[in-house]
Structure formats: C-alpha cells, structure tokens
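Example record

One chain of 133 residues, shown exactly as stored in the release files.
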Amino acid sequence: PFSFNPPYMSMGLVKPGQVLSRSVRITCHDEAFNFAENPPLVQIKGIAPANQPYPDWQYGENFTPRVTPVPGENAVDVELTCQGMPETLSGSFRGTLLLGLDHAEKKELIIPITGVCRGGVVPPKGVRPAGGK
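Predicted structure tokens for this chain:
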C-alpha cells in the first residue's frame, strides 16, 4: 500500500559539523487512507540484528526529521536534517529511519540511513599549506 523514493536516505559525504538535509517521498496507494490526517510517527534508530528491536543510535540526536504533506497527492515528504556530525567521526555511518503508520496492513516503513563523514585534510607537521608563507 506504500512506496517511497528514493529507497534509502543517503546523506552522502558529510564534513564534521556540516548541516544538510535529504528527503524521501512516501506515497500511499490505499485510497481509504489519508496521509495528511494520519502522518507517520518518525523515529531515528540504529541497525537492528535479525529479529531484534531497533536499538538507539549514537548519532540519532544529530538528526531532526520533518514530515510535510504533499499538496494534491496522498503522500508526505520526510526531510531529515543532519545538524552536524562529531569531529571524532571519520568513516561511514548507518542508521534506520522508522516510520510508524496507523494503517491496517502496514504498521511501519523501514528506510536505511547511510553516509560518510570526512574531516578536512590536515597537512603533516612542518608542511605549509599551498600559498602559505
């Protein structure tokens, strides 16, 4: 009864402290269900082991979700804003966007969150940056 595009939430390359947003559109194909009247409950969680509940995610607090109905469609846009990743993070990160639904057939949608955090290049000691004196 639901589809979403893109199939996952790729934050792409994120520098520590950088603020950026990405969106996913969720469309309901069930005419008896009105998304504007039944918006999803959004949670940001970690990766769950098989058949286990989703754990809290150490970076979950770094993200802010916002749900906006799409005018003229039975759909919502879920915007996820990264408020900045910690300076200590270098490498890939993965989490889960859980959307709780008040629908008879489908109670939740699970959308992976992916990204890579890379800081700026730090020159070795004694090496001056290009153009430096």
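Notes: The radius of gyration is 19 Å.
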